[in-house]
Amino acid sequence: MGVTSLALASPARAQAPNLPPNQEAAPPVVTMPSVRKNGGAAYPKQALDEGIDSLVEVALFLDIDVNGTVTKAVVEKPAGHGFDEAAVAAARALEFEPATRDGRPVAARIRFVYRFAPPPAALSGRVVTLAGDRPVAGASVVVRDAAGQERPATTAADGRWRLEGLPAGAYHVTIRATGMAPREADESVKPGEEATAIDRLAPEKAAEPAPAAAAPAEVVEEVEVRGEKPPREVTKFELDVGEISRIPGTNGDALRSLQNLPGVARAPGLAGILLVRGSAPQDTQIFVDGTPVPIVYHFGGLSSVVPTEMLSRIDFFPGNFSTQYGRAMGGIVDVGLADPKGDKLHVMAEADLIDTRAIVQGPLFDTGWTFALAGRRSWFDVWLGPVLQGLSAGTSVAPVYYDYQAIVERQFNTRESVRFAFFGSDDRVDILLKSPSASEPELSGFGDHTGFWRTQALYRNRISDRTELRVVGAFGEDYVNFNGGTLFSLNVTDWPISSRVEVAQKLDKRLTMNVGLDLLYEPYTVSVVAPPPPKPGQPPPGPFSAQPSRATNSSGAIFQPAMYTEWEATPWAGTRIIPGIRLDYTRDTGAWDLSPRIVVRQDIAHNPRTTLKAGIGLFTQPPQPQETNAVFGTPGLSSNRAYQYDVGVEHEFTSQIDASFEGFYKQLDNLVETGLGSTGSGLVYGAETLIRYKPDRHFFGWLAYTLSRSVRREAPGMPLELFEFDETHVLTVLGSYKLGHGWRLGGRYRLTSGYMTTPQTYGFYDENIGTYVPLQAYPPNGTRLPLFHSLDLRVDKSWKVKWGTLSVYLDVLNVYNSGNAAGTSYDYNYTHASQVNDLPILPSLGLKAEM
Amino acid sequence: MRPWRSIRRLIVALCAWTLSSCAPSGFQDASLVTSVRILASSADEPYARPGDTVNLTVLADDGRATPDGGAPLAPMTVYWLPFVCENPPNDAYFACFRQIAGGGSSRGADGGGGAAADGGGGFAGGDGGSIMAGVDLTPFLPTGSTYRFTMPADAVASHPVATGVPVPYGLAILFNVACAGHIEIVPLDPANANPQQVPIACFDANHNQVGPDDWVFGFTRVYAYADVTNANPAVSSIDIQGQPFAITGASPAYATQTFNTPRCAGSCPKVAIGPVVPAASQEVQSQLGPGDQPKEEIWADFFATFGKFDDDARLLYDSTRGSLGGPSVTDNKFTAPTTPGDGAIWIVVHDNRGGASWVTVPVHVM
Predict the structure, then answer these.
(1) pTM of the full structure
(2) Distance CA A278, CA A233 (A)
(3) CB contact under 8 A, A391 and B23
(4) pLDDT for A444-465, tens place per residue?
(5) What is the ipTM of this complex?
(6) Which residue out of A768, A781, A834, A837 would a mutagenesis test of the B interface target, given it has the greatest number of B Cβ atoms within 10 Å?
(7) A164-195 confidence digits (pLDDT tens)
(8) Residues A832, B27: C-beta atoms closer than 8 Å
(9) How many CB atoms are closer than 10 A to CB A102?
(10) How far apart are CA B356 and CA B233, in angstroms?
(11) Nearest alpha carbon to residue B302 among B218, B211, B239
């Protein structure tokens, strides 16, 4: 901007100057107004939305008073697109040293020009290996604009690179790394935008060495939350997380997006559990950067224990996973905490009807360290309780949860880094009966307090081009405190200490070996206060606990070390064979479990790519601590076991559309059955498909469908029964469309089989205790509730403001308030039944600010 | 720690059970008697010695209302299955059903009142006999509110020794049916593995099985101990609004006068009502063997032919505190109906060892 002319207001004169006759008046000394304060003017968003990205000048005439204040601003020639309004608003905020005439301030009119330069853009990305998504450090990134000017960058130890201050426009990106085929792509970026890409580098040639950083190799059933892994994945958004944070019905929670993937059944409304391919909830393990954690969702399942913005990746394996994971027969969820941003300080705050959260991250002064601090707390206990009381409900529920993450990280160089993290979660709910039943006066309600925390250290070192080391260790605490008034309480506390050491070693051009140790040591205490079960020789206790509650305490320690190795062989182009073996020891049972596994992938077509994949493996899962405990458990148990067989195909129809189809079969045995021992067995089989439209400028979406059957047998000779969590059909269709002008609209439709139930009918009257005993349908879980169907919608509106981005969203779960059956309640003699419904329509309005 | 996910399922189930009270279910209270009901049964020896004769009494009521202009309802009859199911596997009542389907056993059945009361043969005329479906069993079944049987002499000796049981015992299960019709055998389906298959049912004159409002299939347990005894809890009086209401008789007992109460009109005052059970009724649970012997739990179930109780049951004594505090604490609250009329209230007092007694209170709503 600049001042180009000056017109002064002449001061009024009362009379002509009284000069001697032989003297002439000296010319006045005039000074121009000078800017004292200028807040600048931001490139208007209207212009950006309308596609204007060039330098624009707006000239104004400013009237400046004797105090230097702008009293009037008039545009000389309108430029439109919001520039005029922006210039006038900025001009009004200007402060000047006023013009002077002979040293005295005078009002003035000046011509003042604002030059609007489009905000710079940024390009960033992450370079990883095609196989295993291992970061490629030290890769050369060259960004060339349309004029041929080049800007270089080098990837850091985590594979990330960034170039900022770029003019908007089209760029050609070239990525090169030793031993890998170069990658080129074209990007275009608008003013103020940051375009981010994940580039996967393949080995240089078929005869060339295998990927430099071999890893726990790609497995058949690996599914990344962002969908299948294409050769290149591009996401373009205005400083937000992207598709997974905008899936309708998930309230922007990335980990809840897992529930929309094939192989994942719909969990009961409040359960907050993951049901993977017909497995029990406890058969799926959750990790944070390789450290096991007990839960993935807060109580109620409406929110996960790590906010989306703190995640860098979510790896979900529904089955046949790598030997680096064990002690599980179902699925694996391994999330990675994001490395703190090191460019500058970033702040994000978000609030909706359910919770509020904030994140601060950036460089830690000039120490070379970066940090991130995040926290979230629910607050629907504030409004839910009064709502229930207003409805004269018999209970008031006061759920509260919070989670927290603190990270400090140091990148020593492009190969070596260390990170310390402290994270945790806490859930508390108290169900207070307004009128405790006189049938059990000691049951005044229920209270549940569960939580965990971890302190974790993660060290990564790419020692050489052939050797990579990863070490993670953690200790913490898990706790469950549950009580039923003064009648019953359960308190479980454990202090897990876990560590994992992995070495990836490239032995040959076509052969990479991964070796690891996986240790878990977990002392625990258990305290149970409960009425003892009635002993034989007397009737059932009836409506009251017949004996005083007794406290039973126990303690112990779990020790479960394991070692594993996995070999990735690429004998010829398009073929990958990954055999592996894992050895687990469980001290509680004295069991040694050897688990061999093998995965094969074969590309049968290129451009578009078609890949066949198959896997076979043995997976073992030790009994749970309460099952082997000397006081509460059963002696003589062995590890649960599952043989898994998978076969599938992946196909890319276009660069935007791909699909996968997989069949799976699991044989289960040695399942621990309460009171019986390791006598259970079962079968799970089915097929699943994912058809996906990858994110482009406007739209992303997918269709996921799973058809499956899960059955169990308690003991040899007993009938085969449907598993309580069996869901034959699980269909999810979702999509999100960017309408422009900051608007986005998304929807999700789900159609699933109903839950299993055991109907009860009029039966008998137990005269000793005065209650009816129902006639239970046989076999148990032999009847299915009606189909579940639900539509969720989400609307987002965002604005770019001077300091960052402001977003508002409305996420409505169960838009048409479908009364889906979650269970059945009965009257006193089981002659009348009433459906218990799943979650009703649940809107959530949120506000998010990022800078 | 993985047990969390199992514990979470338990917590979710308990929360769902509790939250189901968030909205009224609309179900009728168990305390309102509007159908054929068995409310309780009582043995003069809830714990009997082997070889003892035990007298059973049942409290049943036909709460059905004749439909306006409809045909008269078939009267309710209480039938007893004249056999003793001795020591069924796992002490499970339904393990006796195959005995019933097969004609029952004559062991210890003496019968009591009614035409077919003479024992010795059971309703099948002997061990191992069987009756065809469709046959009206009325001629073979004792009827009435009382029944007598002899605890088998080997009841304790023949009971399998259970792990953790401090004092050896035996178990006799007796079955009765309150039926507005007659009883027939329902053959068990051999292809149906459901152990709860009901072997008998109540049928009307046209051999159609009646619905839940017209019959109840009940059972009661009488334990056999060599040396452990159990007395039925005693009710000394009824407390109404803090005033004693005299009763006469014992197990069953009756109020000596009618309880008069205004109908619910506009404001509906609640009347405090409950049994007075002397502290001596709370015995020590000596069947638990030497050592830790808490006292009995004693509670009261409430029933009425009209009106509404705040609670279906109230705890009177618990095993740790003893008395919860007397009538002012333990009394239930009764709300009279909106229309005047005559009816009854029953208060059944149980202990947790199978003992029971009850009081009938005539009610006149003004």
Answers:
(1) 0.74
(2) 31
(3) yes
(4) 677 889 999 999 999 999 999 8
(5) 0.91
(6) A768
(7) 888 888 888 999 998 888 888 888 787 777 77
(8) yes
(9) 12
(10) 6
(11) B239
